[in-house]
Write a structure and sequence with these properties.
Elements: H1 3-9, E1 15-19, H2 24-35, E2 39-44, H3 47-59, E3 63-68, H4 74-88, E4 93-96, H5 111-139, E5 143-148, H6 151-154, H7 161-181, E6 186-193, H8 207-216, H9 229-236, E7 248-251
Parallel strand pairs: 1-2, 1-4, 2-3, 4-5, 5-6, 6-7
């Protein structure tokens, strides 16, 4: 491989904390980070899923550990920061990817569901940015945060009202923080998956829904998790992505550019 390309995308010596790393999409992103040389700390609640992901990373010669954590409160995130830095020394890259979806019709959305989705999809990201962003700013060595957004955070989609609102808030927060921390060397970007079948959206992918998605996606297919890796490495690299902050990097098979 060309030496320049290796240098641009190498993450050797970096530590990446991947919240939601036991899931399908963030798990693939974590694998990509490990393949580029980063030491990956997978954060989630399911130890069995974590074991499978770690085995995959270790098999390819990468470095990975699992931290079991609930990221829904500030106290829990402070504990996570303490555990992560005790384990790995420092953290350079933070990916916020935990999320949940629901197909409930708007007039039927109960307060409990609204609170649950907003808390996990937005509040947990907001708090993680406070805790880990604060850490990165205070240590004075730069770093970067990649928040996982959604096409529905850019273009309101039917049937996922609360999910769309929560992701739109993540997009807005990311741009705000990118501006706030630009002179501190801390980059904040949003990776925006189009339609990727994953646990959180399988229940909304009815036959009718799939037909609508395919009709609006120029590539006429769903994405696969591995196709998020290249975008992740671009944003994570301090060399390849050094001047990229406040950006929404769309990986969607052309969905966002489709009109009539």
């Amino acid at each position: 491989m060309n030496k320049l390309i290796q240098e641009l995308f190498s993450l050797e010596g970096k530590v990446a904390l991947v919240i939601g790393g036991t899931g399908e999409l963030c798990g693939a992103m974590a694998g990509g980070l490990a393949g580029a040389g980063a030491r990956v700390l997978l954060v989630g609640r399911n130890e069995e899923k974590a074991k499978a992901r770690m085995e995959s990373i270790l098999t390819m010669g990468g470095k990975a550990e699992f931290i079991k954590a609930d990221v829904s409160t500030k106290a829990a995130l402070e504990t996570l920061l303490s555990e992560a830095t005790s384990l790995a020394g420092e953290i350079d890259i933070v990916i916020n990817g935990a999320g949940v979806n629901s197909p409930t019709p708007f007039l039927d959305v109960e307060e409990e569901e609204l609170d649950r989705i907003m808390n996990l999809n937005f509040k947990s990201v907001y708090l993680a940015c406070q805790i880990f962003g604060g850490y990165l700013v205070e240590r004075g060595k730069g770093g970067n945060i990649i928040n996982v957004g959604s096409m529905s955070g850019m273009i309101p989609l039917s049937r996922v009202f609360t999910y769309s609102a929560s992701k739109a808030a993540v997009h807005n927060l990311s741009k705000n923080l990118a501006r706030e921390w630009a002179t501190k060397g801390v980059r904040v970007n949003t990776i925006v998956p189009g339609f990727f079948p994953a646990e959180q959206n399988r229940k909304v992918l009815t036959e009718e829904r799939v037909a609508q998605i395919m009709g609006h996606t120029p590539m006429k297919r769903f994405g696969n998790a591995g196709e998020l890796v290249g975008a992740t490495l671009l944003l994570a690299s301090d060399k390849a992505g050094s001047f990229i902050t406040g950006h929404e990097l769309v990986v969607d098979g052309g969905y966002a550019c489709m009109t009539i």
